Amino acid sequence: MYSLLLAIIYAAFISLGLPDSLLGSAWPVMHEALGVPVSGAGMITMIISAGTIVSSLFSDRLTRRFGAGRVTAVSVLMTAAALFGFSVSGKFWMLCLWAVPYGLGAGAVDAALNNFVALYYSSRDMSWLHCFWGLGTIISPYIMSHSLQAGLGWQNGYRTVSFLQLGLTAILICSLPVWRKVQRTKRPAADDPAGKAVPAEGSGMREESGVPEENARPLTLMQVLRLDGVWLVLISFFCYCALEQTAMLWASSYLVQFRGIEASVAARFASMFCIGITVGRFFCGFISDRLGDKQMIRLGTGIALLGIVLVALPARADQIPLAGLIVIGLGCAPIYPCIIHATPERFGRGNSQAVIGIQMACAYVGTTLMPPLFGVLSSVLGIGLFAWYLLFFTLLMLFVSERLNRKLLRRDATAAGDGPERRKS
């Protein structure tokens, strides 16, 4: 039963990744057909990001009221409708309109699925979950490429992905009893075998089991922000997403303009950064349960720092910065899923959906604002700033992550000191 539901969740995360790279692969054709400048894609992505931020912040309230299964099914249906809307849009303003339900659906399903896997499955399963997201981002450009080469137009590419999403929606609706059965059994995650939690005031968590009640009162934003260490994990998550998206967007430009590498070679190796993340998450699944989330985050950060050093080295050989991009991708692989999976253990199982929702919102803020900020800075200071920009966010992420570890260690030590033995004495 658990394996069947996990397979469905994996399929849902593939579908979550499918639209993420669809716009970029189709936009060179779309903007000409719609008669808008290349920069118009930025407007669409900002609307989508705004929707994901809003729905992520409301994910705790939605999931407690309707359950993770129903939220996921409805969210995937919303993205399917939005993608179909893209396929029949003949004007730019129509794309902007359909971007609203697309963003709302994507944010809700992202937060709901991440929390569900963090609660009921292992760190290995979380790594592979995000590996399947990467698989979706790799598949969709091929769908769009086939549509364009066959003369079917970019509309057919969006329509195809929309139909795939509709098929998944049907599967999710049929699987709703399985979601409820898994939640009723209250199966704890592998990294948190006792299902323990530190309840926040008004969190609506059953203290005897550490499992959140779906219909319990949701946490307010201020309640979540008052949880010990939440600000540190939010900064850490923000830094990671700034690192990942800046590398993804600007790597090719850096290689061409600063390193003098041929554009076709630079584009190929820039895509290797994404493949490095996907492949890295697959292999991380084999060791994450053994090492634990904390050590995996440290390991990934260290590898990413090594990759940034390789990119920054003033070497004449083109292979060194190219290899550095792949190494950065491998280092990024475990960080995102392990931060998510550690949330129930760090902040309590009853609080995890609210915390993960805000983490998702911070992630989207980082991915929306930080890559354009680098574009502004590079226009003044030069594209050579690329490696130093990545280094800043990676070091800041490492600093706040270690500070969070120390803070939670002191909290746990204090809680252990106030246990039954101490109270008896």
Automatic annotation (TrEMBL):
GO terms for molecular function: transmembrane transporter activity. The chain crosses the membrane at residues 34-59, 71-93, 99-121, 128-148, 160-179, 230-253, 265-284, 296-314, 320-342, 354-374, 380-401. Residues 5-405 form the Major facilitator superfamily (MFS) profile domain. Pfam families: MFS_1. It is a multi-pass membrane protein. It comes from the Bacteria. It is found in: Cell membrane. One of its GO terms (cellular component) is plasma membrane. Residues 187-211 are annotated as: Disordered. PROSITE patterns: MFS (PS50850). Its main location: membrane. Belongs to the major facilitator superfamily. This is MFS transporter. It comes from Candidatus Eisenbergiella stercorigallinarum.
